[in-house]
Amino acid sequence: MQRAPFKLRVITTGGTIDKTYFDKPGQYEVGEPQVIPLLIQAGVAFEHCVEEAFRLDSQQMKDAERTRLREHVEAAPETHIVITHGTDTMTQTAEALMGIPGKVIVLTGAMQPARFHTSDASFNLGCAIAAVQLASPGVYLAMNGYVFPGGAVRKNHAKGRFEWL
Fold first, then answer.
1. How many CB atoms lie within 10 A of CB 42?
2. Which helix (H) or strand (E) element contains residue 126?
3. How far apart, in Å, are the Cα atoms of 59 and each of 18, 92, 98, 104, 106?
4. Is the distance from CB of 100 to CB of 70 less than 8 angstroms?
5. Distance between alpha carbon 123 and the CA centroid of its chain, in Å?
């Protein structure tokens, strides 16, 4: 069976995945999107584009930013969307994106910045890319080796991972 060509749009919003830390403990800023170097390193063969929506720690994200993000997703010509996002409010954003017809939307992020060699960023991004190709239209989160439907997941801060509701 031959499949139609796959084209992916990645929308970046900031979060830990894009953070840059400085010499002072705990001091950081959200830097350049790290999805481009991750995709290059992985040697992906599918057509893709990367769009930066904003650079925020997800704790700074409000309803206005979620509305703007929804507008980005709705305006995208692609039906397959991966969104890199901070983990603290990823579940709220997933819920704000529900109900967009005809699109497969997968949010992902990292518990450690992509610039760290111990980061989970590349693993989570890979899971998100696989999920967006295989899932039915809807909203999902790809974290910690799971693909969760939006609205069925929570972040367990104590354990540092996502889990089913």
1. 12
2. helix 121-134
3. 14, 11, 20, 25, 19
4. yes
5. 12
What does the domain layout of the chain look like in residue ranges?
7-164
Work out the number of other CB atoms within 10 angstroms of the CB of residue 143. Answer: 25
The H or E element containing residue 57 is: none
| Backbone dihedral angles phi then psi of residue 32, each to the nearest 5 degrees | -60, 145
Residue 12 has a pLDDT of 98
**How far is the first Cα of the chain from the last one, in angstroms, to the nearest whole number?**
37
Nearest-5° Cα angle at 73, 20 to 49:
60
pLDDT digits (tens, 9 = 90+) for 76-96: 999 999 999 999 999 999 999
Q: Which of 125, 127, 59 is nearest to 88 (CA)?
A: 59
**Span 99-119, mean pLDDT?**
95
pTM over 0.70: yes
In this structure, which amino acid lies at residue 39?
Answer: L
Superfamily per CATH, domain 7-164: L-asparaginase, N-terminal domain (3.40.50.1170)
Q: Which residues are annotated as catalytic?
A: 16
What amino acid is encoded at 69 in this protein?
Answer: L
Nearest-angstrom CA–CA distance, 94 and 154? 11
Phi and psi at 15, nearest 5°, equal 90, 180
